[in-house]
């Protein structure tokens, strides 16, 4: 069982915080040529994937720049069962009407992740977004009206000048729109971004802690259970594609700059495709990099310990292909210090507050 990630790299405008492989669209979208490259990529990768594929995720960039026909063509070629979770990221600035978004549902998309980030127009301008708060609300209502099986809203916190009240106002704006999933994550300054070159003044550690505590309580009060560092869901609405990542499952990655993880007879390999769309269009073949077995403990924990409930202890041997004895000493030490659950590879509340430090113990 595995997932399929499909990267659609173009966007209207590069946001100053974004370190993803995204490219501002400066001419006509080469939709047909890119679809042909994706299908060639998929045909080459398919024999290597453990079947069945249980989730598909269209990320970007801004996937909603592509037409519903493009998604229908890809999903028809993928030939997946009807119950597979199929997520498309969307930008509120590219979708506003129920009729428009319903075309994506008819194409086979059954879950939409809407990149709102904030409902505060001042913050949206600072983040370089192409939409305003009203456009975000209209897009969200259109998605609800179209009847998708799943609906996520992406929000950031820790924005420039943001207070607890401002962060809660964003969360209240999201909850009012009734998504079944909210991704609420802290803005971080990443290298090689515009914000790295010209960093905004962000809240300090104490202010961030206050925002996080208040926001987590607010989401819990409104029926959104935190199940991962930045993921909150109503019952039965956890993102299956991301759960596969966090439990160290395998996945295919197709598209410009896409990465994959595959387990074979010779161990685990990471796959990567050319980042530049023009190079990918010429040659979508992968570059494989075997993962050093010595790096697997920290790679596994970097994912699994993000989950509030962690994973069963047996999952390490199943997914990393190594004996549990490799991590026994570190795990025992963490349990003795009250950082890890005694029965699972999961952190205690105290350990979860020190996630990065705990993960580093497996280096």
Keywords:
alpha/beta, Arc Repressor Mutant, subunit A, three-stranded antiparallel beta sheet, single chain, 21% strand, nine-stranded mixed beta sheet, TIM Barrel
Number of helices: 15
Which structural class fits the helix and strand makeup?
A: alpha/beta
Number of domain modules: 2
CATH C-level class of the largest domain: Alpha Beta
CATH H-level name of the largest domain... which superfamily? Aldolase class I
Q: What is this structure, in a nutshell?
A:
This protein has 363 residues and is α/β, with parallel strands linked by helices. It contains 15 helices and 16 strands. The strands form 4 sheets. A 9-stranded mixed sheet has the order 9-10-8-7-6-5-4-1-11, with helices on both faces. The protein has a 3-stranded antiparallel sheet with strand order 12-13-14, with no helix packed on it.
Structural notes for this entry:
With 363 residues, the protein is α/β, with parallel strands linked by helices. It folds into two domains: 2-243, TIM Barrel (Alpha-Beta Barrel), CATH 3.20.20; 292-363, Winged helix-like DNA-binding domain superfamily/Winged helix DNA-binding domain (Arc Repressor Mutant, subunit A). It is 39% helix and 21% strand. The protein is built from 15 helices and 16 strands. α1 (31-45) runs parallel beside α2 and α2 (68-78) runs parallel beside α3.
């Amino acid at each position: 069982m595995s997932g399929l990630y499909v990267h659609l790299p173009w966007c209207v405008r590069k946001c100053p915080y974004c370190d993803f492989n995204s490219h501002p669209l400066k001419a006509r979208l080469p939709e047909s040529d890119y679809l042909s490259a994706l299908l060639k990529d998929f045909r080459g990768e398919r024999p290597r994937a453990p079947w069945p594929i249980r989730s598909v995720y269209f990320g970007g960039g801004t996937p909603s720049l592509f037409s519903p026909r493009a998604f229908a063509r890809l999903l028809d070629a993928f030939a997946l069962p009807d119950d597979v979770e199929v997520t498309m990221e969307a930008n509120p600035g590219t979708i506003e009407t129920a009729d428009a978004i319903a075309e994506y549902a008819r194409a086979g998309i059954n879950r939409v992740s809407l990149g709102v980030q904030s409902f505060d127009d001042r913050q949206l301008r600072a983040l370089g977004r192409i939409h305003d708060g009203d456009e975000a609300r209209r897009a969200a209502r259109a998605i609800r009206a179209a009847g998708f099986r799943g609906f996520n809203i992406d929000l950031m916190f820790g924005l420039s000048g943001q207070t607890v009240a401002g962060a809660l106002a964003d969360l209240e704006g999201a909850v009012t729109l009734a998504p079944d999933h909210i991704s609420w994550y802290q803005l971080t300054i990443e290298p090689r971004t515009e914000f790295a070159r010209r960093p905004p003044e962000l809240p300090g550690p104490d202010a961030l802690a206050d925002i996080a505590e208040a926001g987590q309580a607010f989401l819990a009060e409104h029926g959104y259970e935190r199940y991962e560092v930045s993921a909150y869901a109503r019952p039965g609405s956890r993102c299956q594609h991301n759960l596969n990542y966090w439990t160290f499952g395998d996945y295919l990655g197709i598209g410009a700059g896409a990465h994959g993880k595959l387990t074979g007879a010779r161990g685990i390999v990471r796959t990567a495709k050319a980042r530049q769309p023009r190079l990918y269009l010429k040659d979508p073949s992968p570059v494989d990099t075997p993962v050093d077995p010595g790096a697997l403990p920290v790679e596994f924990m970097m994912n699994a310990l993000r989950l509030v409930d962690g994973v069963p202890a047996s999952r390490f041997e199943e997914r990393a292909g190594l004996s549990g004895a490799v991590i026994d000493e570190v795990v025992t030490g963490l349990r003795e210090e009250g950082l890890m659950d005694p029965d699972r590879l999961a952190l205690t509340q105290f350990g979860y507050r020190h996630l990065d430090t705990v993960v580093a113990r497996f280096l």
